[in-house]
Design a protein that fits this description.
Blueprint (H helix, E strand, L loop, with lengths): L3 H51 L39 E8 L2 E8 L4 H12 L6 E2 L2 E3 L5 E4 L31 E3 L3 E4 L12 E4 L3 E3 L5 E5 L1 H12 L8 E2 L6 E9 L1
Antiparallel strand pairs: 1-2, 1-12, 2-10, 3-12, 4-5, 4-11, 5-8, 6-9, 7-8, 7-10
Length: 261
């Protein structure tokens, strides 16, 4: 028969083993939680980096600035290399930017009264055939829903060699508590590097309502036919099946023209 001292020691040992087991389980649980949280953080970071590197929310636009994320958000831009074009449009008129693409025609109306610098720049670039035979290099399918175009290099890093000021940033209403507004489906907005006045030639076409900070100049409205073309492009997803990348079905702007209405 065990003595009282032996019994006391046995109880103490069992208590110690229970404590060790609870501590080990707590450590395992903590590690599991850390992995879950870390994974979520990694996913968020990956999305934000993608947006930043994509030009929309400061996307991959290191030269001229993207939605960005339409948060829909970016990398440093290069020093301005040349002045923006002199004002040469009717600032009271409306203009149409017609994109003939490999996936179908997409046209949108631009109001020069609200975004004169943006419309003037796009008219100048289009007249020089700047957008002809360029790729729409980026499609996002979660969080924000945009197709990004306007980069002559097709990499997200190209631009016209100058930047233009932001305009019409209050055109989509007052930001919510998260500092965001809704960029409605059919909206066309400027991509940028995340810094004020860093837009160039890259823009994004919104095919589904997208919450973003009001830092991307909204300057166009896509017509119904063009929106259908955009939606069909989006249905195909990205080339690698991810949420942010090149469109699975390559989209080339064969010709981009701007005309006064």
């Amino acid at each position: 028969m065990a003595t009282s001292e032996q019994r006391r020691r046995q109880l103490a040992r069992e208590k110690f083993e229970r404590q060790q087991k609870r501590r080990a389980e707590a450590r395992r649980k903590s590690r599991r939680q850390a992995l879950v949280v870390g994974g979520a953080v990694a996913a968020v970071v990956a999305l934000l980096v993608g947006l930043a590197l994509g030009g929309v929310f400061s996307g991959k636009d290191t030269k001229d600035g993207a939605a960005d994320n339409p948060s829909p958000t970016p990398t440093p831009s290069a020093p301005q290399q040349s002045p923006s074009p002199a004002m040469a449009i009717d600032q009271k008129a409306k203009y149409t930017f017609a994109l003939r693409t490999s996936a179908g025609d997409i046209s949108f109306e631009m109001d020069a009264a609200k975004t004169p610098q943006t419309v003037n720049s796009f008219k100048s670039l289009a007249d020089k055939k700047f957008f002809d035979n360029t790729k729409c290099h980026r499609l996002t399918t979660a969080g924000i829903y945009v197709l990004q175009c306007g980069d002559p290099e097709g990499t997200g890093r190209g631009g016209p060699g100058y930047t233009i000021p932001d305009e019409n940033l209050d055109g989509l209403g007052k930001p919510n508590d998260q500092g965001q507004v809704t960029y409605p489906a059919g909206t066309v907005a400027m991509a940028n590097t995340g810094r004020p006045g860093s837009g160039g030639s890259q823009f994004f076409l919104v095919y589904k309502d997208s919450p973003l900070p009001p830092t991307y100049t909204p300057f166009g409205k896509i017509d119904a036919a063009g929106l259908k073309v955009l939606e069909e492009i989006a249905k195909q997803g990205t080339a690698d099946g991810g949420q942010d990348g090149a469109p699975k079905t390559p989209v080339t702007v064969q010709q981009g023209t701007v005309t006064k209405n």
